[in-house]
Amino acid sequence: MANVTVIGAQWGDEGKGKIVDWLASRADAVVRFQGGHNAGHTLVVGEQVYKLSLLPSGIVTGTLSIIGNGVVLDPWHLKSEVEKLRGQGVEINADNFAIADNCPLILPVHRELDGLREAAAGAGKIGTTGRGIGPAYEDKVGRRAIRVCDLAHLDALEPQLDRLCAHHDALRAGFGQPKIDRDSLLKELAKIAPFVLQFAQPTWRRLNKVKKAGARILFEGAQGVLLDVDHGTYPFVTSSNTVSGTAASGSGLGPSATGFVLGIVKAYTTRVGSGPFPTELDDDTGQRLGERGHEFGTVTGRKRRCGWFDAVLTRQSCAISGVTGIALTKLDVLDGFEKVKICTGYRLNGKILDYFPSHAADQANVEPIYEEMDGWSGTTAGARSWADLPAQAIKYIQRVQELIETPVALVSTSPEREDTILVRDPFAD
Ligand code: IMP
C-alpha cells in the first residue's frame, strides 16, 4: 500500500483542496511538511464549509493530523484556527492532532518585518501573503528561531532572545521601528505556551510508529513547485522548499516513505503575487479565465493573474518533483472556448528553449511558443468518466500528458468530490 505525497505543480492554487480532502478521507494520517498559514483551502463537507490555512486537511474528518517540523507555526493563528473549527463541531485533541516540537515559531516581529519590507520594496515587492513566512524561515536557518519545544523552557530563553533581538533590532532600526519589547514577547509566549504544548511531541516518532503499523500516510504539500525557494521563479518565491522531497525532511520520515507523488495541475495557469509568468493574458481571455475559474486568493482575497497552460513549466515541475501522476483540475473552466492554447517552448534572444531558464531577467523575457487546438462546445463540468467528456476535451488532456511527460491519474471536473475521473488510484499503487 502506497503513501501519497500531494504537491502543487504550478504556482499554487491548483485546486489541491478537493483532491487532498478526498485522499485524506482514505488516509490514516495526514502530515503538513512545509509552509505555514500562507496556504489556504476550503473544504466543503455536506452543508459545512471549513477554511483551513495551517491545519492539515485530515483534521475535519478526525484523521490523525500532524504539523511537521518543516512548517513554520504561528501559535496565535493556530489557536484561532483550532477554536474556529471547534466552533464548527470539529473534534481536535491530542489523540488526533500533533505538532512537531522542533517546529520554528512565527512571531509578531516576523509578520511586521514581512510588511515593512514589502512596503519599502515598492514596485519590486514579492507580493507575499504578509504572514511572516519568509522572516521566520530566515531565523530558522540563521539558528536564532524560537521553536515549539522552547515554549516548555521559557525560563531558559534569554540567550536565544539575545540572538533574536540583536538581529531584529538592527533591522528594525533601519526601518525606523522601536526595538523588540522582550518583556511583552515573553509574556505573550508564556500565555500561548500551554495551548501549543498540549499537542507538541517528537512527531517523527509518532509517524514512524504509525508507518510501521501499516498506516497510509498522506503528505500534504502547500503552494506549488514554481514557488519553491530553489527551483521556483526566484526571488519571487515562498521561503520553503515546496517540492516533493521536502515531505521526507519536513516530517521526519525518510524519502522511501513518500510514495506516489501526485502533482496537482490546473488546466490553465494562475499566479498571485509578483514575478514572471510567460503565458499571462492581460486581455479579455485572461479576464474570462479568472471569472469562470473564480480566481481570487483564499488567504488574501487578491485577484489571481491568469493565462494559458504552460507545458514547459509543468514538465519541469513534474521532473523536479518526481511526479508519478497528475490530477488535472478545473478543466470545466475551459469549456466554451473556441480555441485553446498550450505553451510548448520559449523564444529567448533568437534561441528556442524547452525549459525555463534560471536567471530572473531571462525568465521575464522568454516569449511563449504556442500550439493552438480547437476548443469544445459541450461541457466537461461534472463528468465522471471519459465517456462524459467531449472528444476535443479528451484530446486536450492527452496532449497535456504527452507534453509534460507525466500520466494523468485523476481529472477533476467540478468542486464536488464525486465529479472526478479516476484513472489510477494513488493509494492503490
Ligand atoms: P509568502 O509565502 O507569504 O512569503 O509569499 C511569497 C509568494 O508566494 C507570493 O507570491 C505569494 O503570493 C505566494 N504564495 C504563498 N502561499 C501561497 C499559496 O498558498 N498559494 C499561492 N501562492 C502563494
Task: Walk me through the structure.
The protein is built from 12 helices and 18 strands. It has 429 residues and is α/β, with parallel strands linked by helices. It folds into 3 domains: 4-102 and 200-260, Adenylosuccinate Synthetase, Chain A, domain 1 (3-Layer(aba) Sandwich), CATH 3.40.440; 108-196, Orthogonal Bundle (Adenylosuccinate Synthetase, subunit A, domain 2), CATH 1.10.300.10; 266-428, Alpha-Beta Complex (Adenylosuccinate Synthetase, Chain A, domain 3). A hairpin with a 2-residue loop joins strand 3 (41-45) and strand 4. Helix 2 (75-87) packs across helix 6 (182-197) and helix 3 packs across helix 4. The structure holds inosinic acid. Inosinic acid binds next to helix 4. The site of inosinic acid has 21 residues, from helix 4. GTP binds at residues 12-18, 40-42, 304, 330-332, 412-414. The active site is at 13 (proton acceptor), 41 (proton donor), 140.
Largest sheet: 10 strands, mixed
What's the helical proportion of residues?
Answer: 25-40%
Multimeric organization: single chain
Shape: globular
* Low-confidence region ranges: none
Identify the bound ligands: inosinic acid
Number of domains: 3
How many distinct beta strands? 18
Could you tell me the radius of gyration in angstroms?
22 Å
- Tally the helices: 12
Q: Can you tell me the CATH architecture of the largest domain?
A: Alpha-Beta Complex
* Overall CATH class of the largest domain: Alpha Beta
Order of helices and strands: EHEEEEHEHHHHEHEHEEHEEHEEEHEHEE
